[in-house]
Design a protein that fits this description.
mainly alpha; two-stranded antiparallel ribbon; rod-shaped
């Protein structure tokens, strides 16, 4: 049996593989969150399937395979099968997203989508392994293969659940980190099921070397990642542009609450005597008094007099003691002039002509 090395370049390839899986999962979750908003659902789900299936799963698998080597054997890759594995990852993730991310998601849809997506991811992994060409004989242990399939289904179900429930940048980042760990765990579990034996012949191996696929892979992934980042950023800018009126409506009441408010006026308490007292007479409308219309005015028109404002006597009081009469003052020049006016039945209105002038 030949020795298999999964970390030929140390922790560099696992770390890069996890970063790509995390990045693809993060972009996919953000696209799925925008698909739940209702506008452009199909387009956002297609972008999410490319992000999760293409960048988060297939690219992670390929970068991890860069650190794979077999002692004494040459490893090359069949390009058509490698591309088929990439298409498989994108398609199965897209199917799962379209099944689960609906206006009315259900538990049955979540489980069905997780099963389809998980089996598809496992198929992608083993199609990619089948695309590997070597002059060594490669075999697999079925218990480890079954475990990797279970991990793939569980990871796919959790990932689809995240696409339904996760909101906010911090929550999305944490969910993407968990998804990246699950995908890497599934990959290395499947790789642990493999063993290799020498074939005894040194015939040349067909296919393309891993480094020859690396340059177009980097260019393609960079283009897809940049397009996804631009699309997500533009939608975030448009959403922020629509929020200022709403933010103003939310912030304005808070600032008004901090301003001092006038104290409410409290009406004085009423006693039982106030309830028994007769109501005051209605207040008449304002009347402009002139010397011409003074004779035609009546108490009802002018309003209540001082006598009317005295409260009525209770029934047990029969009289009110009168104050002592005060003798009228001696009439002076003004009062004499005023008293000299003729006495008639018409009310008299004194003027300044009735008062003698003094020099």
């Amino acid at each position: 049996m030949l020795d298999i090395h999964h970390f030929t370049y140390g922790w560099l390839t696992p770390l890069l593989a996890y970063i790509m899986s995390f990045t693809g999962s993060l972009l996919g979750l953000q696209c799925a969150a925008r698909a739940r908003a209702g506008r452009g659902r199909a387009g956002w789900l297609v972008l999410a399937s490319f992000a999760i299936g293409g960048t988060g799963i297939w690219v992670m698998h390929f970068i991890a395979m860069l650190g794979f080597s077999i002692t004494g054997a040459e490893i090359r890759y069949d390009v058509p099968l490698t591309l088929l594995s990439a298409a498989t990852a994108i398609v199965v993730v897209g199917i799962g997203l379209f099944v689960v991310v609906t206006p009315q998601p259900t538990l049955v849809a979540l489980l069905a989508g997780g099963a389809v997506t998980g089996l598809g991811v496992a198929a992608m992994h083993y199609v990619g392994m089948f695309a590997m060409r070597s002059n060594a004989t490669i075999g697999y242990e079925l218990p480890m293969v079954a475990l990797s399939v279970v991990i793939a289904v569980a990871a796919a179900t959790v990932a689809l659940w995240f696409t339904l429930r996760v909101n906010g940048f911090l929550a999305t980042t944490g969910a993407a980190g968990i998804m990246g760990l699950a995908v890497c765990g599934m990959h290395y579990t499947g790789m642990a099921s493999m063993h290799a034996h020498g074939s005894g012949h040194g015939a040349p191996v067909d296919g393309t070397g891993a480094m020859q696929l690396l340059a177009p892979l980097i260019v393609g992934i960079s283009i897809v990642t940049m397009l996804l980042l631009i699309a997500v950023s533009l939608t975030a800018i448009e959403r922020d542009a629509e929020l200022p009126p709403l933010r103003a409506a939310i912030v304005r009441p808070a600032s008004e609450d901090l301003a001092p408010q006038p104290k409410p006026r409290v009406a004085p308490a009423r006693s039982a005597a106030d309830d028994l007292a007769p109501p005051p007479p209605p207040r008449p409308a304002a009347v402009h008094v002139t010397p011409e219309n003074f004779a035609t005015l009546s108490p009802a028109t002018v309003g209540p007099t001082a006598e009317d404002l005295v409260p009525s006597l209770p029934p047990y009081v029969t009289s009110v003691p009168q104050a002592a009469e005060v003798p009228a003052p001696e009439p002076g020049p003004q009062s004499a002039a005023i008293s000299a006016a003729p006495v008639t039945g018409t009310p008299y209105w004194p003027t300044t002509h009735d008062v003698p002038r003094r020099r």
